[in-house]
Amino acid sequence: MALDAVQDHVAAARALAARLPQLIDESRRTAISLRGGLHGNRKVGPGSDFWQFRPYIPGDPTNQIDWRRSARGDHTFIRQTEWQASHNYWIWPVLSPSMYWSSSRSIPSKAERTLILSIALADLLIRNGETVGTFDGERTRITSVEHLEKLAHAMLATPHSIATSGMNMHPGRKHSVLVLGDFLEFADHGDQTRHALRSLGQSQNDGALVHILDPAEISPPFQGRVNFIDSQDNLIFKSEKFEDLADGFKQRAQKWRADVRDAARQNDWLCDQHVTSQSASPTLLALYQHLSERQNQGGSNGRGRPSLTQARTGSHDMQETS
User: What pLDDT shows up at residue 10?
Assistant: First the structure.
């Protein structure tokens, strides 16, 4: 039975890899739908994009004077460009066996939605002048959207477990690390998983955990006799009448989500939840805006970050009490 489960997982992974061109196209469409309303780094510095005019101050370089703007009035103006220094982002989609599950044929798997969010976020960041990489064996990094497909393939080759591989990840100092997954390994390897995530933030690295959930993991629709098996086909839960145990199931699931939030807080990282039955756009927009604003506030692990729920307008409220 365990061999059958492994083979099923491999088949699901291969099917996802075969669909990668379609997922990249969907990711690009999602990113394009958001790009029009996004802004850049919004800081003065070296760059080619115009930001604003300001009055000339004695001592300013004369080659920065905009003579056409100055000729329209009685004052001399400096033309300022927008700061475009590149920041490094590492995106790790943790495609564990449980990520290939979906509670309905009409709902994408957690793995599929995770890749769409990861690739779309990479697209937005790269177009804003950032460097994006992933934790495959080659530590692939790209700076051009022309290489987005290369990055997507590399994401498929990243480790499938935070607990067993997280300690071997070594992002550069003051880089940003984004980890997306269902984080079910907290149930079996909670301490090891938390320790691995903690190590990713030790070099003043900013970051985020994006908790990808199937709607059945929020509000289980099951009735009657229900058997739960793990990725190795081992029976872990059996119920003759699930309705009698639904409250206990929800409490355990709520604790699991609280454990993920606590792990993010230990690193002073963002924690967001995304449910696969909903649009990817609100999560993507809020995550991108948070990252951009965090960098503009002075870099990694700065305090006083904006609230994610404030950044996301019109979206569902996923706040819980642990």
Answer: 77
